[in-house]
Amino acid sequence: MKRWSNIWTDYSYQICVASVVVTSLCAAQYIWRNVRMSDLEATLTTLNNSINNTITDYTPVFGGVEEKSQLLDGVEIQIMGRSYVLPDDKAMFERDIESFLWFSYRRNFRAIGGTTYTSDRGWGCMLRCIQMLYSHTLIRHNFSRDWRWTKCGVYNGILRDFLDDPNGLYSIQQIAKAGCSAGKDVGTWFGPNTAAQSIRILTEFHKELNLTVQVVMDNFLCIEDIKFFAKEDDITWTPLLLIIPLRLGLSECNNIYIDNIKHCFKIEQSVGAVGGRPNSAFYFIGYQNDKLLYLDPHVTQESLSPDEIDLDNIPDDTYHTKKVDLLAWDQLDPSIAVAFYCKTEHSFDNLCQQFQETITAGSGSLFEMVAKRPAYMTPPRRTPVDKLLENYSAEYDEVNTEDAASDSDGFEIISNS
């Protein structure tokens, strides 16, 4: 039997939807009698946006009926090479969590060029997750794993690059724009691979970061090829963000992979993973028992306008949270991408050694890894930045905002966020 609060929630939602329907019918009658046919398309578009905003912005008074899993006392928590046990380590644990930059849905930002999108609610959860993963990578790149939230010039500069501003290096506008070059239209849902490719493209435009992003394809990691891209002059190592998209099953995750996925979060070089469950994308940062810890982007907040704030002292309270949620393994979508940051070549060699000893070994191997490129494979080549820029600009100028039915990167789509 439903709880009274849930029953009331259901009736409240039905009343809300009924009100929208009645309003729509009245508006349709007015349109039929008074609006010229030449204005019909624009009017219907506005009406449709109004209906969608009303429904998607509806929040039940008593909250959702889903019960959230709770962290357990006395059971080890692993977060990117750090171990905590509650309640003894609660303060350190919360300090670690709140030091991640937390990006969630925002509304009322400047429209993404060529479209009318001023909010990413309902479609941008994977983009927000890749923002969280990449921002943590930049914090590791500029500070260390043990850096804790402290306002300073370097930190402020990192946050500024992720604001909802068309000029922000890694803003929602820029990632959506890069997704067009990867074959995804603005307003459609990204899979983990497309999100990773978008960040790779954006990083190529900003060589001053001294960072390279490499995305492993087809579950095959060639150490020689990764080093080829990380050492452009064959001598100097460029710090590396390595993203490995995985497929852990057909429609659900195979239990054979669970231990190796968990082991990824024990590795010092880990910067988390992006994935989720059907209908939602999350940024995974660790685990407890057989449940993954994640930061949730599905909270809609007001966008900060760069024109209305001090960019040298950004108000950042809404970009941090102490709240972390848990997802059971059997709820995990099989499409996920794990990521690792290697500041030095020695760090990368150490990472590969750990891969060889654990997550690429045995029946639960996550991917194949080889030291040298097989003779049948085509040697890698670097794409000139001007060529990337040509594709990046052209595809964005002629953007198509129609929803996509499937994810072209070959992974199960995480949709309807």
What brief labels describe this structure?
disordered N terminus; 417 residues; 9-stranded mixed sheet; disordered C terminus; two-stranded parallel sheet; alpha+beta; 15% strand
Protein architecture, described:
This protein has 417 residues and is an alpha+beta fold. Helices cover 36% and strands 15% of the residues. The strands form three sheets. Strands 1, 2, 4, 6, 7, 8, 9, 11 and 12 form a nine-stranded mixed sheet that branches. Strands 3-10 form a two-stranded parallel ribbon. It has a two-stranded parallel sheet with strand order 5-13. It is globular, with a radius of gyration of 23 Å.
Shape: globular
Distance between the termini: 28 Å
Return Rg in Å.
23 Å
Largest sheet: 9 strands, mixed
Number of strands: 13
Strand content: 15-25%
Order of helices and strands: HHEEHEHHHHEEHEHEEEEEEHEH
